[in-house]
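Chapter summary example: a protein plus adenosine monophosphate.
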Amino acid sequence: MADDLSTTIAEAARLLADARDVTLFGHINPDADTLGSALAVGLALHRRGVVVRVAFGEPEDVPESLKALDTAGLLVHRDDVPQEPELLVVMDTGSLQRLGPLADRVERAKGPVIVIDHHVSNTRYGTLHCIDEHAEATALIALRLLDEMGVEVDEPIARCIYAGLVTDTGGFRKAGPAAHETAARLLQTGVDAYSVTRPLMDAHPFAYLGMLSRVLAKAELDERAAGGLGLVHAVVGMDDARDVRSEEVESVIDVVRSASEAEVAAVLKELRPGFWSVSLRAVSQVDVREVAQVLGGGGHRLAAGFTFDGAAEQVVAALKGALERVES
Ligand code: AMP
Ligand code: MN
Ligand code: MN
């Protein structure tokens, strides 16, 4: 079977064993899973003397909280990515659209394009698909690949994998027994869980507190939305986000989703005037990936997102409409 994971992982390991030049991509607005996966595999290849670069399409700069994962300086600006990469590996990216301005490199690549991902909605772009929609994080599939390659997973590599795993599982709340066993293996290499997770999940500059209080003061609860299951939402306008990093804006959803009256939580993040990136979370019953897909986005059953052009009220109206269309 062409898509069997062990077969495609073995094939990916074989291709990487012969490679001299490898480009690895994460998705736009990168998180610890996409960059951790890319940097872990990148680091293993770099140590073998391969020319390695890791990049993502947007924004211009590396999010501050992820810089500590790049222990070998493999991250490059998107403008320094070759027009025709020799071998391309794309991590944690469900569709070409999620590569932003780097999407064209997939078509232009001279050699294979290996896609490593855990999104159910993966559109199967590229040439070789290592996709496991049951994996809690792409980092777990990246680790399988490293094992297949015979790489010694030491602390700098394990740190990258751990970062992806701990963030995508919501601090292991959504991790199964195998993922916990993997976490134990990673910690045994010397990864310091607290110092890895604090900058990724807990620490914010003081200005975060002010931003959060302004945004939360305007949050709204609609208990009748989503067929009576409830929607809570908050809006982070460009003014609210002016004094904070993207990390602070991205973490607002984790506070908003704590409202227990709502099955679904949403945070509207204004990227440009009237252009929004929306984060969706569900507790257990609503498949927010389906809701996001109705609106042109994607993601996972309990964590998804989409972008939208218009006023904030229009985004909320469209979201409520989509929530009625998707059965829970
Ligand atoms: P976020 O709320 O940005 O953390 O995103 C949650 C999940 O939704 C991620 O795993 C992404 O895969 C997915 N996602 C977010 N935004 C989009 C989008 N515009 N299109 C497709 N998938 C998205
Ligand atoms: Mn991701
Ligand atoms: Mn992921």
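Key point: DSSP finds 13 helices and eleven strands in the chain.
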